[in-house]
Amino acid sequence: MLKEIVIAIQSYIEAHHFIVKHRLWKWIIIPGLFYAILFVVSMYLFGKTSTAVIDYLTHTTGLDSWLQKFQNSWLGFFFTFAGIILWLIQMMFYFSLFKYIFLIIGSPIFAYLSEKTEAIKEGKDFPFNFFQLMKDAFRGIKLALRNTVWQSVYMIALFLLSFIPVIGWITPLIAILVECYYYGFSMLDYSFERQKLSPSESIRFVSLHKGLAIGNGIVFYLMHGLLIIGWVLAPAYAVIAATLSLYKSRK
Length: 251
Known about the structure:
Order of helices and strands: HHHHHHHHHH
Structural class: mainly alpha
């Protein structure tokens, strides 16, 4: 799996050179700007909501008055840290929902980018077929909905686990890996449709090659650390890198 993670990470570097060489910027910048604007607005609203949820829980359960009564610095530290973990889990859950909404909206563009990448790489000319593009996009939407359900189940379980002291501290790391896996899965599936893999075959393939999905998702999330630029480039770079990583793994 480690080798596949490395392949997926290296594919982002190849994706950058590929985009520059073949002048694909218009397919990167336009959806990227839309994504960046939605990302800023949604993260602001999600942050407010997450804080309000924590305040509501501590006040409703009487936890805040209980802590003030004991005035124990260690207890205060543990519950403050647990609150931070809970806030992170909520933000990841919200971000996963936002991400899938954008995947559903942007499925036609992502499907086209994946097809364009493979056509250039293989030296073939895939004539534009609107009905095939819509078929690929619809499959991407169905997969995004399926992954949303499963990821939500895992995130809710992690949300409950985060209430357990000490053990719950590792939940953000697990949540990140789950996020990376399912996002990378969605990016890889655009290639699976062209290879005539059924949804069940796609699920089986990714379960056997988790590194490709996780590695793709890891870089996607790391790119968000590059303010504005990373937000604009991350979505399209992810789908091109996923297509290149599959091409490399087949070779």
